[in-house]
């Protein structure tokens, strides 16, 4: 699965649901109060799901800047693990602000990756009492993390399938809207082009209104893909008008000016696009 397929928290249903069921088993097996999964963001680590047997130590949604986390120590370790019997006595962790905030001692954490080896976050356990975790304990938590990796893949696959759809909405016999949502990689772009061209030919439409308001643009890939789609439709005699341009897309376009060079018309709403070509939506 592509690393660009980044999942928002609400899309991680499988990971969140199953991890909650696993946490009680992990807690019993390692004799700890707390087990949790974190997700790495651009600058912080956020607790995605958690379990606290007795004391409420780590709530879901708890977020800490990456540089002040135990997660950073886990991810930077060659073995993808960090453990200490007492966070307050360890020379590195006792200096972290989070240690005084949490008030816990025993800690064990491993890196959580997807099946492609990309770092997703961490799987951790902690307790109010000192804990000396064995190599068997570490191996057990690594195995648990590997199981969770398959759930990340499942959530990625589900999102990828949803993104593969190409929603085309007819407005009139000659005008249709193509709404582009989510991430558009090369595979999905090819499908969009094929379906748009096939639809345009079968319906003999004159105008395609491309709505980009729900589009997620990454790595400056999509502007070139959009250029190719517009060119293909133009060859077929279909005019493209673009609406719903996001600030990020506008920034990328200002750097390459591909749409400007093609003379593609851009407007700020679907209604404005319809006005431009002489159509108007009338409420009954």
TrEMBL record:
Top-level taxon of the source organism? Bacteria
Extract the InterPro entries matched here. Bact_StressResp_Reg, GAF, GAF-like_dom_sf, STAS_dom, STAS_dom_sf
Start and end of every STAS domain?
Answer: 165-252
Pfam hit, one: GAF
Supply the SMART domains for this chain: GAF (SM00065)
Q: Which PANTHER family match?
A: BLUE-LIGHT PHOTORECEPTOR, RSBT ANTAGONIST PROTEIN RSBS-RELATED
Q: What is this protein called?
A: Anti-anti-sigma factor
């Amino acid at each position: 699965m592509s690393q660009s397929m980044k999942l928002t928290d609400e899309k991680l249903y499988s990971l969140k649901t199953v991890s909650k069921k696993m946490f009680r088993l992990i807690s019993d097996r390692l004799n700890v109060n707390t087990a949790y999964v974190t997700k790495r963001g651009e600058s912080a680590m956020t607790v995605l799901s958690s379990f606290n047997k007795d004391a409420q130590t780590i709530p879901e949604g708890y977020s800490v800047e990456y540089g002040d986390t135990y997660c950073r120590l886990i991810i930077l370790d060659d073995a993808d693990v960090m453990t200490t019997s007492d966070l307050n006595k360890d020379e590195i962790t006792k200096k972290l602000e989070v240690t005084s905030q949490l008030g816990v001692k025993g800690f064990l954490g491993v890196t959580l990756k997807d099946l492609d080896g990309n770092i997703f976050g961490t799987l951790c356990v902690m307790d109010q009492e000192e804990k000396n975790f064995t190599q068997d304990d570490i191996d057990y938590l690594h195995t648990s993390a590997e199981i969770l990796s398959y759930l990340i893949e499942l959530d990625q696959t589900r999102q990828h399938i949803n993104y593969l759809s190409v929603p085309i909405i007819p407005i009139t016999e000659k005008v249709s809207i193509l709404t582009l949502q989510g991430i558009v990689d090369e595979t999905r772009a090819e499908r969009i082009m094929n379906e748009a061209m096939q639809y345009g030919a079968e319906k003999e439409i004159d105008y395609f209104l491309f709505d980009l308001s729900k589009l997620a643009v990454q790595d400056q890939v999509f502007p070139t893909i959009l250029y190719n789609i517009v060119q293909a439709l133009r060859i077929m005699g279909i005019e493209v008008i673009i609406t719903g341009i996001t600030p990020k897309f506008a920034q990328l376009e200002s750097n390459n000016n591909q749409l400007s060079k093609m003379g593609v018309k851009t407007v700020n709403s679907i209604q404005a696009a319809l006005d431009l070509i002489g159509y108007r939506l009338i409420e009954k």
